[in-house]
């Protein structure tokens, strides 16, 4: 296993981590045909998308628009707690997911023609850790 440290630059960000994952596979060749990725944060997610530089924040905006998420604490919760402050980003990230399995062929990620592996940030900026587990 290797842990990648991915720096996000904005509150909402999309970071292409395809090349970093591939380099990790070069350092730790998989024995099987799949690599598992896991982001160690509740307000970030992993997925694959067709990505051009111009598309990134539009992608995050569309995800936020389609996922209903609470923006205010319920009555009786004792004010705006730390938990509630992070809940909207955590709800959105949970809909996408913290883990991703990607096929591997001859030590290389086996992605579709336009697919890229991306980390979606919903409460940055910050440094996010992604575990790369090659089997």
* CATH fold annotation: Jelly Rolls
Under CATH at level 1, the class stands as Mainly Beta
Strand content: 35-45%
Strand order across the largest sheet: 1-8-3-5-6
Q: How many strand segments?
A: 8
Percent helix: 25-40%
Arithmetic mean pLDDT: 84
The CATH superfamily title: YjbQ-like
Structural class: alpha+beta
Describe the protein's architecture and organization.
The chain has three helices and eight strands. It is of the alpha+beta class. It has one domain (2-71, 81-134): Sandwich (Jelly Rolls). The strands form two sheets. The protein has a five-stranded antiparallel β-sheet with strand order 1-8-3-5-6, with helices on one face. A three-stranded antiparallel β-sheet has the order 2-7-4, sandwiched between helices. β5 and β6 form a beta hairpin. The protein is globular and about 40 Å long. The N and C termini lie close together (9 Å). The model has no long low-confidence stretch (mean pLDDT 84).
Please supply descriptive tags for the structure shown above:
single chain; 135 residues; alpha+beta; Jelly Rolls; five-stranded antiparallel β-sheet; 3 helices; globular
